[in-house]
Protein: Dynein axonemal intermediate chain 4
Amino acid sequence: LAASDYSAVTGSGFLSSISMQQTSGVNSSLAGPFSRSYGSSSISKSYASTDSLADDIAEPSPRRDTSADITDVQVRREEVKEQLTNEELDRRVDIYLTETETIWIFDMPSVVMSTEAEDAGKVLERNKIYVDVCKNRVGNERFVERMMQTLNGAPKSKEVQCDKIVTEDKGIMVTSWDLYDSFNELEVEPTSKAEGRRVTIVSSNISLISGQHDQSASSVCDRDSTSSSVVESALLAKIHEEKEDHSEAILKSEKFHQDLFFMERILMENVFQPKLAVYRQLPVLTEPVATSNTGDRATTMEEADPEKEEHEQEEQEEEEQKDVFIAPSVLSNLNKGPEEFVPPSLELLWSYACDLTNGRSVSSMAWNKLNPDLLAVGYGEFDFKEQKNGLVCCWSLKNPMWPERVFHCEHGVTTLDFSMVSPNLLAVGMYNGIVAIYNVQSRNDTALLDSSESLDKHIGPVWQLKWVEQDRGTTGDDKGEILISISADGRITKWFIRKGLGCSDLMKIKRTVSEKKKTTGEKEKKSEALISRQAPGMCFDFHPKDTNFYLAGTEEGLIHKCSCSYNEQFIETYRGHKGPVYKIAWNPFSTDMFLSCSADWSIILWHQQSQKPILTLSSTTAVVHDIVWSPKSVFIFVAVNESRVEIWDLSISTLDPLVIRFAAPKVKFTTVLFAKNTDCLLLGDSKGQVSVFELQNLGASHSNK
Structure:
C-alpha cells in the first residue's frame, strides 16, 4: 500500500467515511474487493478467494490498481455524503475492530542440515510424514487428548540393626599323603593337557580321511567334541590375556595412581589420627564405646575388665620408667617435693621408616622452610670402611609409612638443608665431596646441579652445609641467600648458581700449634712437621643476628671465629675440646652464648667474648654426636650420645641431665632435631629410623637470664 492511500482519508472526511461504512446501504455499495476501517488507522485487505490473492500478487503493478479503487471509494463517499441527515450524523455508532487473516509475504523455513548431505532424503521424508500426521490429526478420531494424574510414592527411611560380625580362625590337619597327592596333581595336569591337544590334532586328520565308514563316524563325533573343547579353552585363554592387558593399563594409568594416593592419605589419617592430633596439639577424637543397657544400669566394655586396665597401666608405667631416667640431683634442686613433682618424659608417637631405609644410618635431618610438615632425611655412613650408596627421603606428616620423594645417590649422604628463598631446592652434601641440588617438586631422581664438574670442588667429605641469608650491599636492605659448606679438606666454601654450580672459598682453615708446645730444639721442630697445612673442618654455625660472623669447628678440637669479609686470619680461637668438634649451636635467645659437642665425651658452654669455657658438661663416657637448643627456652637443650638422648635444663641442674632415654639394644642415636611449632623431638638412629617423641611435662622457661 502506498502513502497516497492515507492522504485521501484525512480531515473531515475521516468520520464521514466511518459512518458511511456502518450504514446498511453503504455496506452494500462498498462490497467491492477492498474494504477499509479508519478507526485505528489500520487498513485491511480481504479477498473473495485465494485465487484472487494469487492473481493480485502476480500482477506487476498492484499499486496502480489500488490507487484506482481508492479514488472510486472517495467518489462514492462524496455521493453518499449528501444523502445523510442530521439525525443520522448525531446518532451513536458502534465500531468493532477485528483482526484479519495474516498475509505471508515471505516464508523461509529453517534448515538444520544441508540438502546436499547423505541423509537429506531420509530427513525430508520424515518431515513430509510429520506434516501429513499434523494435518490429519485435526478432526481425526484416532488422536485423542487425555490427561492423567499420578501419585508419587512416599519416601520411607528404614533402619536395620544387625549383630556384630564375628570372625573365626579355622585350621585343618594335613597328612603327608595329602601333600604328596596335591604335589603330583600339579605335575600331571600340564602333561594331560598336552596329550589332549595331540589327540585332537590327530583325530581331526583321521576324520578327514575316513569320513565314509560308520565306525569312523562315531570317532568323528568324539573328535569333534574334543576339538570344540580345545576351541573353548583357546577362547578362554584369549579372554584371560585381554583382561590381563586391560588390568595392566588400568594399573599404569595416572588417574588410578592419583586415586590410590588419595585413598592412602585417608587411611593414614584414620590410622594415625590420635598421634597426629597429639603432635599438632589438637584434641584427640576417641571412638565411642559399645554399651549394653540392662534396666537402669549401663555397663561398658571397659568397666567389665578393670583388672586388665590396671595391669596394662602398670606395664606402661614400668616401660616408661625403664626408658626414661631422672637424676636424683635434679629432683633435689626442684622447689617442689618429689611427690608433687610431675616428671617430664618422652612418649614415642611414630617412626619414619620403610624398606628402603632399613639398615641405613640417619646422618642429617632438615625441615622445609615453607611447609612445616615436610622433613628431609639423609642416609649415609660416617665410617670410611662402611660406605655404601646414599639415600635422601622427603617424609610428610600425612604419610609416616612411606616417603613422598626418594633420591638415590652414588655416595653416602652426610648433610642436607632446604633453601629459604626457593623452598623446593634441597642441597645435599656427600661423602666423596660432591654438593648436589635437587628439586623436590619434581619426581625426577637426578639432581638439577652438582659440583662434579667444578674445578674447585671439595676433595673430602662435606660434613655440613647450610643456606645462609647475607647482606649484599652496604646498606643491609638488599639481602641474598648463599650456600655455605665445610669439608674435611680444610675449606669453608661459598657456592653460587650461574651456568653451573661454581664456588669460592670463604676461609681455608690453617693448622695451629698448641700453646703448651713451644719449639725449643730441632728435634721438636721435626716432630711437629705437618702432613697438611689445612685442618679438616667438621661443622660451622652463623651468628643468628649478624650473619657476617660464624664459628667453625675442626678435627683438632679447636673452634675458630671467622668473618666473611676477611679470609686470611681467624678473629678468635676457642680451646677446650681434646677431640674433633662435631656440632656448634648458637643460643637463639642469648646470642652471645653457644654450645659445642665433641668426641671427647664433653659438652661445653661458651661466651663469644671469653676464650675459656663457662661450663663443661659430661654425663657419660660416650661420643656426643649432636646437640640442639630448644626453640622455646633459653636453658633447655638436647644432646645425643651413642646409647642415649639427654635433655638438659641449665636452670635446674648443671651437673646431670633432666631426662635420659636409652636407645634400644644394638642401636645408636646419630642426630636430633626439634619439631616446628610443637613440643616434639625427632631422633635419628643407626638402623634407618627417625622416631618422633612428644615432650611431656617440660615447661618452657621464660626467664631472660
Summary: The radius of gyration is 50 Å. Residues 345-510+532-696 form a domain with the Methylamine Dehydrogenase; Chain H fold (CATH 2.130.10.10). The chain has a mean pLDDT of 75. The first strand starts at residue 291 and ends at 294.
